[in-house]
Amino acid sequence: MLRPILAALLVIATAVPTAAAQPARPAVQRDNPLIDYRGFQRLAARVQPYRQTRLINWAEFERRRGERGVLILDARSEAAFRQGHIQGAVNLPLPDFNAASLRRVIGRSDRPILIYCNNNFSNNREPVMTKLVQLALNIQTFINLVGYGYRNVHELNDVMDFNDPRVRWVRG
Amino acid sequence: MYRVLAFPLLVLATAAPAAAHPAPATARPAPAAPLLNPQMSYDGYRDLIQEVRPYRLSRLIDWDTFAAAARRPGVLILDARSERQFAAGHIQGAVNLPLTEFSEEALAEVIGPDRNRPILIYCNNNFREDRPPVALKSGRLALNLSTFTHLYGYGYRNIRELNDVVTMDDPRIRWVSSAPAAGNSSRAR
């Protein structure tokens, strides 16, 4: 009875350190102290189930956009935003996100925010070229907003045609 | 010894059948699962960042290596900050494609057809100043992380990331700007 169990434990005990001792060899002595990849992974893991509860369809997006204090945040680049965006949206490109810029654009941390991106459109044309499914901008924007303390975010889940008059697409 | 081992086994043995019979469906109606946008995959994103992590660790380089590589023909310094921040200042020779503009087509246009072209990246969190146009981002949301994972996700396999924290006024950096930083920064407005 004990033999197989002990053998199994021995295998586990010897296998674990070997696996852990062979990550890719770091090219530098120590990582940039201003960048935290593990923290980023943990954040992405923590946000996933929460985001799942914050996906809304177009009808719900329409309903919420009219409510007081709601901000439609478009995190695409400035040039893309100028070419076209959902009426009423405010632009802050994702690379410009930091604590100060978000506070300036959003204000209160509990402000209701609606987000959408390229991959909410079926057009796959400028200015909403479709990105790879795993690199959709909404995923990044959602993680960033929560990471900077803005949790009252809803994300459009539908795929629309920007020529659909309900979208109220504004061309630059 | 046997006792200690037998106890958890007993717990498992009794717990398993219970788990096989879930609570009756009448307890609480499960919320209807939203039909997910087929153009997005969070699972795919998490798999990607998991896969990239060890690779990125082996691709971090110090300033001297970065500068030496930048002098070689065919090497591209890619700056994924916004157009505005890039205009306000960047490392000499860098080319700008904001992260938000990344797509199969846009990357091919800037980088070319060779997925093995050497690419050097840097971002805000490589600078000590913490002021525009390189105001610091949260460490876990540093732009380099996104730029690295995105390039990898789109198939580019020769990426190196500056690991040092430097200053804009270090002459070795050769920081150039075509627009005044103060007036154009997101922070200053």
3D architecture notes:
The complex is a heterodimer of chains A (172) and B (189). Chain A has one domain: 3-Layer(aba) Sandwich (Oxidized Rhodanese, domain 1), CATH 3.40.250. The radius of gyration of chain A is 22 Å and the shape is globular. Chain A has a five-stranded parallel beta sheet with strand order 1-6-5-2-4. Chain A has a two-stranded antiparallel ribbon with strand order 3-7. With 172 residues, chain A is α/β, with parallel strands linked by helices. Chain A has helices spanning 2-20, 37-52, 58-65, 78-83, 99-106, 137-147; strands at residues 55-56, 71-74, 84-86, 90-91, 113-115, 153-156, 169-171. Chain B has a five-stranded parallel beta sheet. A two-stranded antiparallel sheet of chain B has the order 3-7. The longest helix of chain B has 19 residues, at 2-20. Chain B is globular, with a radius of gyration of 24 Å.
Q: What is the 3D shape of chain B?
A: globular
- Secondary structure class of chain A reads alpha/beta
Query: How far apart lie the N and C ends of chain A?
Result: 76 Å
Ranges of chain B where pLDDT stays below 50 over 5 or more residues in a row are 1-26, 181-189
Q: Give the proportion of residues in helices of chain A.
A: 25-40%
Query: Which chains make the largest contact?
Result: A-B, 67 and 70 residues
Q: What is the β-strand count of chain A?
A: 7
CATH class of chain A: Alpha Beta
Radius of gyration of chain A: 22 Å
Order of helices and strands of chain A: HHEHEHEEHEHEE
Strand order of the largest sheet of chain B: 1-6-5-2-4
**Unreliable runs of chain A, pLDDT <50, ≥5 residues?**
13-24
CATH architecture of chain A: 3-Layer(aba) Sandwich
Oligomeric status:
heterodimer
Secondary-structure element sequence of chain B? Answer: HHEHEHEEHEHEEH
State the distance separating the first and last CA atoms of chain B. 70 Å
Q: Which features characterize this protein?
A:
heterodimer; A: 172 residues; alpha/beta; Oxidized Rhodanese, domain 1; five-stranded parallel beta sheet; two-stranded antiparallel ribbon; 6 helices; 7 strands; globular; B: 189 residues; disordered N terminus; disordered C terminus
